[in-house]
Design brief:
With 268 residues, the protein is α+β, with helices and mostly antiparallel strands. It has ten helices and eight strands. Helix 3 crosses helix 6.
Length: 268
């Protein structure tokens, strides 16, 4: 795949993970303005979900809504008008664990709320209801390549549809024994508000390609451990390029020996 000459523009960023619970915190760490210090994550209480709804959801859904809301706010976009792409590696392993435990009981019972929260596109549903969106929404999964898969889906939508888009990539740590089979070091989420036209809020212009190359690393061992500890965090090199304010080529791991190549031109 050659570079896509139809660029996309990043208008807003949302981040939530250990040591970086907002884009401002993340940017300071990636610029080297402060040392990266992973800390216990605060409780997720996204304001877009009213308390009654928050009580029916877990961190997997709350994480997606939290980072999407931050990206939409920074972009000064009407969230209800954004097409959405939600990307995950493993969906909600906590609910999967609970359901698997329930169905082996003598009287298996799974609540309807838990069941509908278990499906991969449940975050999309909660987001669309919260912002009153009737725009198109897609949910995808790509194991460790989920960030790249989500990015390619969002770029494709921008190329063929009339909507601007929101990309949300998120995964949460699973309980044992699932976490032994599929290790996940932490909860992490990234959201990017994207458009195909350059506006006043545009932070970066990005051209996309797929090439045979090696993935881009981060500046420290600790940050690379974070990057490898959750598939959503594979997008951190893109955020690092934006944080440093230096135009560069970023390689995000995709399938087999290929990477998604992002030619990033900083605008602000």
């Amino acid at each position: 795949m050659n570079n896509n000459k139809l660029p996309v523009y990043i208008d807003g960023v949302g981040v939530f993970g250990p040591g970086m619970t907002s884009w401002n915190e993340c940017r300071a760490v990636l610029r080297g303005e402060c040392e990266y210090q992973p800390q216990a994550l605060p409780k997720l209480l996204p304001e877009l979900l009213v308390p009654a709804v928050r009580r029916r959801t877990g961190d997997y859904i709350r994480l997606a809504v939290k980072v999407a809301a931050e990206a939409a706010e920074h972009s000064i976009k009407d969230a209800s008008q954004l097409a959405t792409v939600f990307a995950t590696s493993d969906s909600d392993g906590n609910i999967a664990h609970t359901i698997c435990g329930a169905v082996v009981q003598d009287e298996p019972m799974v609540s309807p709320t838990m069941f509908h929260n278990s499906v991969t596109n449940s975050p999309a549903g909660y987001w669309c209801i919260a912002v009153k969106s009737q725009a198109p929404s897609t949910s995808v999964a790509g194991y460790d390549a989920s960030f790249a898969v989500g990015w390619l889906e969002a770029v494709t939508q921008l190329a063929v549809d009339e909507y601007d888009a929101m990309l949300v990539v998120h995964d949460v740590k699973m309980p044992e024994p699932l976490n032994t089979c599929r290790p996940m070091e932490c909860n992490f989420g990234i959201a990017l508000a994207l458009s195909r036209q350059q506006g006043e809020q545009a932070l970066a212009r990005v051209e996309t390609g797929i090439v045979a190359d090696t993935e881009t690393l981060l500046a420290s061992d600790q940050l690379n451990t974070l990057r490898l500890g959750n598939p959503a965090a594979r997008g951190l090199p893109l955020l690092a390029a934006m944080a440093r304010g230096v135009s560069s080529n970023v390689m995000i791991p995709y399938l087999d020996d290929t990477v998604v190549s992002l030619k990033v031109e900083l605008l602000l």
